[in-house]
Specification:
Layout lengths: L1 E8 L3 H8 L2 H4 L1 H5 L2 H4 L6 H7 L3 E4 L6 H11 L8 E8 L6 H16 L5 E6 L6 E7 L13 H17 L16 H8 L5 H15 L3 H10 L3 E3 L6 E3 L7 E2 L9 H12 L31 H12 L15 H4 L5 H14 L4 H31 L3 H71 L6
Helix pairs in contact: 7-8, 10-11, 13-15, 13-17, 15-17, 16-17
Amino acid sequence: MATTAIWDVTDRLKRVLNYAVNPDKTDQRRMEADGLQQTLAYTSSNAKTERQLYVRGINCDPISAHEQMQRTKKRFQKTGGIVAFHGYQSFAPGETTPELAHAIGVKLAQALWGERFEVVVATHLDKDHLHNHFVINSVSFMDGKRYYDNMASYALMRQTSDQLCREHALSVIEQPERGKARQYGEWRADQESKPTWRGVIREDMDAAIARARTMSQFYAHLQARGYEIKAHVKHVAIRPPGKERFVRLRTLGEAYGEEGIKQRILGSALPKKKSALPLPKRKRALVVRRKRPVKHRKLSGLHALYFRYLYALGIVPRYRSSPRRASFLLREDLRHLTQIIEQTKLLSRHRIASRGQLTSYIEARKAEMKGLSLDRKSCRRRLRSCRQPEQIAVYREQVAAYSRQLAQLRKEVKLCTGILARSDTIKNKLQQQEEHEEKFRRKEVEAHERKRGGRSGRQHEPARH
C-alpha cells in the first residue's frame, strides 16, 4: 500500500534538495552505524556517491542537481515563482525493502516526469515506513514550459503508483476515503506538534457547535469571534480575521461540512441524562494568613507589549479565575510560542523597553561576537602549531568554549532581530482585537436596548376591545 502527495516549493530549491538527499535518511549503512560513525564529516563527492545508495537523478546528477536546475531556469528566463515540486510516496511498514521501494520510486518518476523534467529521487529509511521523495524542477529542460500541478496530474500520479505496486505484489488502497487529504504545511505542523491556522478554525468551530442549537446560532457565534460567513451559497465558506481568502467548510473535514455540523448540533441539543449529585464534603477550618503586599516593577515599552500579548494568548498569568479564549488572530501565533516566550525572557532579563535600547544591545552583542571570533581564530592558529598533547587538549577546550559563547550570542542576536520584526505585528494584532471586541460590545448593547424598547412598548400598548 503506497500513499502519494505532491506540493509546490516557493522558497528555496537548495533547501528541498538538501532535505531529500540527506545522507542520514538515505544511507542504510549510516542508519546501521554507531554514533561515532554518524558524526563523521560528509564532504567528499566520492564518499557521497558511495554512501548515498538510495538517491538517483533523472536527467540530472543528484550531486550537482541544484546547479543544473538553476541553469535550466536561467536558460528559459523563468527563475521566479514556484521553484520546484516536492512529491512523496510512502509504503506501509514492513511491506517492502529499501531496494524495491527505491526501484518503484525511480520507475514512477521516469513514467511521470522523465521525458521533460529534471528529477531527484531519494528513498528515506529513517522511519518505520519507507518513503520516496521526488524533487521536480518546475521548468522543463526540453521546452522551458512549467510543470502544471492539478487534480488530473495528481490522479495520474496516484494511478501510476498503484499500478507499480500491483506489479510488485504490494497492497493498494482500492477506494481511498474522500476528505482525508491534508495540505503539506498542516501535515508537517502536525508531525512537529505545532498548531495550524486550519486547526485553530476547527477549534473555534467546535466551540461554536457546542454552544449552538441551530445553524443560525452557530454562524452568530463564529461572527462574534470575528469570522465572516458566506452562508447563502452552494458551499458555505468562512474567513477568519486577518486572512484574505475564504475557506470552504467541507475542505476542513467531513465533521466540519454543513451536514456534519447539523448532525453535531442536533446531537448536542439532545437532553443529557442528569448524573447523581455528589455528597457534600465536610468543610475544613480555614486559616487565613496575611501576606505582605508584593511590589511589582511597572513594565513599559517592548517589555510591556510582549507581556500583554502573552496575557491575551492566555499564557500569562498561567491560572486565571475567569479565563478568556484568545481570538483566531492571536491564537495563530501559538505555533511560534516558544520563540515568543524566549524573546519575552530576554527583554525581562536585560530590562529592554525601547527599540533604541534593543538596537544598542544588538550592536554590543555583535561587537562581543567579533572579539570572540578573533580570539577563537588566534587559539586555532596556536592549536595547529602546537605539538604538546597536554597543551593541545587545553587549546581544544578553549576553542569549544569560544564556540559555545558565540552560539549563545548568535541566538540572542537572532531573538532581538525577531523582536524588531514582530513587535509592530503584535501591536497591530492587539489593536485589531480591541477594535473587534469594542464593535461586538456595541452590537450587544444596541440589541439589548432594542429588546428593552420592544418590551416597554408592548407594556404601554392600550388594550383592544
